[in-house]
Design a protein that fits this description.
It is a single chain. This protein is α/β, with parallel strands linked by helices and about 400 residues long. It folds into three domains: about 40 residues, no CATH class; about 180 residues, Rossmann fold, CATH 3.40.50.300; about 60 residues, Alpha-Beta Plaits (2-Layer Sandwich), CATH 3.30.70. The strands form four sheets. Strands 6-7-5-8-9-10 form a six-stranded mixed beta sheet, sandwiched between helices. It has a three-stranded antiparallel beta sheet with strand order 11-13-12. Strands 1-2 form a two-stranded parallel sheet. Strand 12 and strand 13 form a beta hairpin. It is elongated and about 95 Å long. The termini are far apart.
Length: about 400
């Protein structure tokens, strides 16, 4: 990066976003430093981008274009590539009218509406057609994902959320003992990944890693990645991972909360996980930790890279799972051996007694509602058949 420019204005200049003096300054410095690309940390209208490019003789990239370019670079899975292409096409469609120089051409002939149809209408039709195909493919992927997700309804679902580059994927690898790709860069993760985790006390859950959020993320980008965010929507608990080394952590936390609110999932159970404590030590860290602990008393401080304080996080997760499961009382006939083993495997047993006289097991156990209802149904079916046969 050769330079950075700021300008305080009551509102953007309609034609060039920045004032004429600032544009002239940028153009002069760009020539002197042989800069060919200008990146704006705001969205520009097509006419603003074109006017700035004409005045500075530089390629102009706005905020959304830069994010999409990073997305395209990091898209690895089929789903991520489809989502990025959809976001790019929807962005291009909204800017089609003023962006391309060839749009003034007139195209006619066989197969067209006739002389007079502008090229822009042809381009719009082609983009719309491709957008329709992409949305259909993403719906199919979403339906397949929902089927897979229903199969794990009986187990706790935990999802990682957080500002991009906060260490979510590193924490995912630590908890799931996985090797998910990690990098010190924006949006290293674009697709969702799910793994099963077993805690030291034998309680288990599935954890999902998702795309990182960013400040003022364009709404249509969130919509394009809607299928990826399904794991967030269906989660029983969200682990909000925060980079404790970032001086703007409060702003980043607010940005993540704003996205969760946009997705209508800000009322879910959320556990704050302040990450990268291995990078901040000494008196300054002690003061920061004390301050954050006072403001967020139920938060956890951890290093996903080194595993420091992992036990504290595991303890919080174990407690949450126990609280989420309600204590259920079951009486299982001795003959239903497989059902008894299923209960032992699926829940946390607090009390188990054997009634020798009636040949049955009495249990106080924590089970999810779906498993409990299934077990009760099996017991009632057994008693009904026993009654009929008697």
């Amino acid at each position: 990066m050769k330079g950075r420019y700021f300008q305080q204005l009551e509102k953007p200049v309609a034609a060039t976003f920045l004032g004429k003096g600032k544009i002239d300054e940028i153009a002069r410095n760009a020539r002197e430093q042989q800069v060919s690309t200008l990146i704006f940390n705001d969205d520009l209208t097509p006419s603003q981008a074109r006017n700035i490019a004409n005045l500075t003789h530089c390629n102009v990239v706005d905020r959304t274009e830069l994010i999409l370019d990073i997305f395209a670079k990091h898209a690895r899975t089929h789903q991520a590539k489809l989502q990025v292409e959809l976001a790019q096409l929807e962005y291009a469609y909204s800017r089609l009218k003023n962006k391309w120089k060839h749009l003034s051409r007139i195209q006619g002939g066989i197969g067209f509406r006739g002389p007079g149809e502008k090229q822009i209408e042809t381009d719009r039709r082609e983009i719309n057609y491709r957008i329709t195909i992409l949305k259909k493919k993403l719906i199919e992927i979403r339906q397949t994902a929902e089927i897979k997700r229903k199969k794990r309804d009986s187990i706790i679902n935990i999802s990682l959320v957080g500002y991009t580059n906060s260490g979510k994927s590193t924490l995912f690898n630590l908890l799931a003992r996985d090797n998910r790709y990690t990098a010190n860069q924006l949006f290293a993760t674009l697709d969702s990944k799910t793994r099963k985790v077993v805690l030291p006390d034998e309680q288990d859950f599935v954890i999902s890693d998702t795309i990182g959020f960013i400040e003022n993320i364009p709404h249509h980008l969130i919509e394009s990645f809607n299928s990826t965010l399904l794991d967030v929507r269906s989660a029983d608990l969200l682990l909000h991972v925060v980079d404790i080394t970032n001086p703007r952590l409060s702003e980043q936390m607010a940005s993540v909360n704003a996205v969760l609110e946009d997705l209508n999932i800000n009322q879910k159970n959320i556990l704050l996980v302040f990450n990268k404590v291995d990078l901040v030590q000494g008196i300054g860290f002690s003061f920061l930790k004390k301050q954050l602990r006072a403001e967020y008393p139920d938060s956890v401080f951890i290093s996903a890279l080194t595993g420091e304080e992992l036990e504290q996080l595991q303890s919080h997760l174990s407690y949450f799972i126990q609280e989420l499961y309600g204590l259920k009382h079951l009486i299982i006939p001795d003959i239903l051996t497989e059902l008894l083993q299923y209960v032992r495997k699926s829940g946390v047993i607090f009390i188990e007694e054997y009634d020798e006289k009636n040949k049955q097991h009495k249990l106080d156990v924590k089970l999810s509602d779906s498993i409990y209802n299934n077990v009760v149904s099996q017991i009632e079916k057994y008693h009904l058949l026993h009654y009929i046969n008697s």
